[in-house]
Amino acid sequence: MSGALRLLPATALAVLLGVNGCAPQGARESAQEGRYMVGEPYRMGGVWSYPREDFALQETGLAAVTPDARAGRRTANGEAYDPALLTAAHRTLQLPAILRVTNLENGLELRVRVNDRGPASPGRQLELSRRAAELLRIPPAGGVPVAIAVDPEASRALAASLPQPEARPLAIATAPRAALESEALPPPPGARVAGQVRQGREAPVRAVGIPDAAASVPVRLPEQVMQGAPRMGRLLVEAGTFTNRAEAYRQAARIRGRVEMRGPPRRPEYRVRLGPFASVAQADAALENVLGAGVPEARILID
């Protein structure tokens, strides 16, 4: 113990330790858990993103690793950032959400908690915390192909259990009420007048349980890494998916890409793509050209 602490009276020392080390557990947990949110459209890295609630998201892309190693800052949904936790940032997912992230180069899979917005680079699909990247063996420079999939059950539990921003009330003009007139009428012939009105029983109130995300989906996810088979594919740039064939070919001509058809013959989809590319640097350069041509929805994927 330092000399300064020795000079403090016992009561003052107890107060000091109580403030710094004995905060109520509920307060610490609420500070960590933050709130559930989707959020408004925003611009980052020169590209607009449009957050939406999606409990079935599955996609591929390149991973980034967060360059910010500071602990204690607040994430987009108000959680306390800790580089030692298994967390991630995504541009459009609801916050928080639980993702299964697979390194396609080595087959390693890990569950992470998405609680922030990013990555800043439009060429990256997911930004991982330092610890999550270490466990998946993704270098600090990132650029590793990954597959991500939302864990729907755990993510819905978080959505149901965390505080949500209050919706702004709608201003609705109240319709004017006319004065009502009443008149007491005698009972019809043969009817008996009840001496007492029977009171009906109130409907029973049932407590609806909310999933306890704090117990089933803790803030500190376990470091459980699963080993699967590597699943490397083609490195591509996709510049949109269309249901109209003519629109797809106009887009392809605009960026010198090609059109790939998928789906049933009666309801096909047309994907506009470039590649495959031999390296991440080539894919990044192609994406930059497509974004510069005015196609903000373009992204890098692995197929």
Briefly summarize what is shown:
The protein is α+β, with helices and mostly antiparallel strands.
Can you walk through the features of this model?
With 303 residues, this protein is α+β, with helices and mostly antiparallel strands. It folds into 2 domains: 28-163 and 219-231, RlpA-like domain (Barwin-like endoglucanases, Beta Barrel), CATH 2.40.40; 233-303, 2-Layer Sandwich (Alpha-Beta Plaits). The protein contains 8 helices and 13 strands. The strands form 3 sheets. A 6-stranded mixed barrel has the order 3-7-4-6-5-8. Residues 1-31, 168-178 and 193-214 have low confidence and may be disordered.
Task: Give the secondary structure arrangement, pairings included.
Elements: H1 3-6, H2 10-21, H3 25-33, E1 42-44, E2 47-49, E3 58-65, E4 87-89, E5 97-103, E6 108-116, E7 126-128, H4 130-136, E8 144-150, H5 152-161, H6 213-216, E9 226-227, E10 235-242, H7 245-255, E11 258-262, E12 269-274, H8 280-292, E13 299-302
Parallel strand pairs: 3-7, 4-6
Antiparallel strand pairs: 1-2, 3-8, 4-7, 5-6, 5-8, 6-9, 10-12, 10-13, 11-12
